[in-house]
Specification:
The complex is a heterodimer.
Chain A (H helix, E strand, L loop, with lengths): L5 H5 L8 H29 L4 H8 L2 H29 L3 H32 L1
Helix pairs in contact in A: 2-4, 3-5, 4-5
Chain B lengths: L2 H8 L15 H32 L1 H11 L2 H28 L6 H28 L1
Helix pairs in contact in B: 2-3, 2-4, 4-5
Bound molecules: protoporphyrin IX containing FE.
Chain lengths: ~130, ~130
């Protein structure tokens, strides 16, 4: 250990490949999520406890459906990327980490697509 | 051998090893909670998807979902999710201010920490007061 140079020790233990891109997309989605979350909170407040007719009328407005879909996309993408960082930090060995990441990706995309399709279904049915 | 070196030798993850921090200093505590709430929010999206998909499934499924969400347990989950969301949002803004190199002195970190907790708590209270009264 002591005989190796700092560079030699650093090589192979960290990624200098797609780290920045991951970090950047995580920030972009976080920035988008600030206004989207404030909108989402006000939206939920306005339909809290509402019956089906009220809620579907709410989603039938293009602005509401559109912003809801933006919130879903930004939230799921950001949450997935954040969770990947957590998994990279704590889950070992490597083979388990890869398995967890595969599961995470599939789960998030499935839930995300179901959510978007649900919004569209309600919006179109009115 | 330090913990970091030990982990490097094993080829495993090298950060952030919670054991080396004093976990209950305000600085590290708020940071750990940011991560815990981030993960919790992602798990909580299951609840969101259930809500929105139930509406897509039709009025009956929607009523059933609203019954669950309106139960004390449903309220508990939604309350937890709302506080986690406001906390993580406010602290996320704080994170991104740090990313620009601002407010990194220890004094600022404590100060913005208190402000952040106050904002998150305030937003949660206001949201619930409005939600329950409107
Ligand atoms: C509401 C607006 C939000 C903002 C401004 C925001 C901001 C951030 C920022 C800046 C980070 C990076 C923290 C770091 O550098 O350690 C982060 C991490 C994370 N976020 Fe968010 N976030 C938001 C919403 C969400 C939502 C809705 C979810 C879940 C679906 C989520 C899940 C996560 C996760 C899992 C992490 C990783 C935590 C970590 O690495 O410690 N965030 N968020």
């Amino acid at each position: 250990m002591a005989m190796r140079s700092a560079l030699g020790r650093a090589r192979g233990i960290g990624s200098a490949k797609d780290g920045f891109h991951h970090w950047w997309i995580e920030r972009l989605s976080a920035i988008a999520l600030v206004p989207l979350t404030l909108w989402f909170a006000s939206a939920v407040i306005s339909v809290a406890g509402a019956d089906y007719a009220t809620f579907s009328a709410f989603l039938a407005k293009p602005w509401n459906a559109g912003l809801m879909i933006c919130f879903i996309c930004a939230g799921f993408l950001h949450g997935k990327m954040g969770m990947e960082v957590i998994v990279e930090d704590y889950v070992e060995p490597r083979c388990v980490q890869v398995a967890v990441r595969i599961f995470l990706n599939i789960a998030v995309y499935v839930l995300g697509v179901i959510s978007v399709v649900s919004v569209l279904t309600v919006a179109v049915r009115g | 051998m330090t913990l970091l070196e030990e982990r490097i030798n094993r080829g495993g993850p090298v950060s952030p090893h919670l054991q080396v921090y004093d976990m209950f200093k305000l600085t590290s505590f708020l940071s750990i909670i940011h991560r815990v709430f981030g993960a919790g929010l992602l798990v909580g999206t299951l609840l969101f998807t259930y809500w929105i998909a139930s509406a897509a499934a039709g009025p009956q499924a929607y009523d059933c979902a609203m019954n669950f969400l309106g139960s004390w347990f449903g309220y508990l989950l939604v309350f937890g999710w709302s506080f986690a969301l406001f906390y993580h949002m406010c602290n996320g803004v704080r994170h991104m201010l740090w990313d620009t190199g601002r407010m990194l002195a220890l004094k600022d970190i404590y100060q913005s920490g208190y402000v952040m907790v106050a904002c998150a708590s305030g937003l949660t209270v206001v949201a619930w007061v409005l939600g329950l009264s409107l």
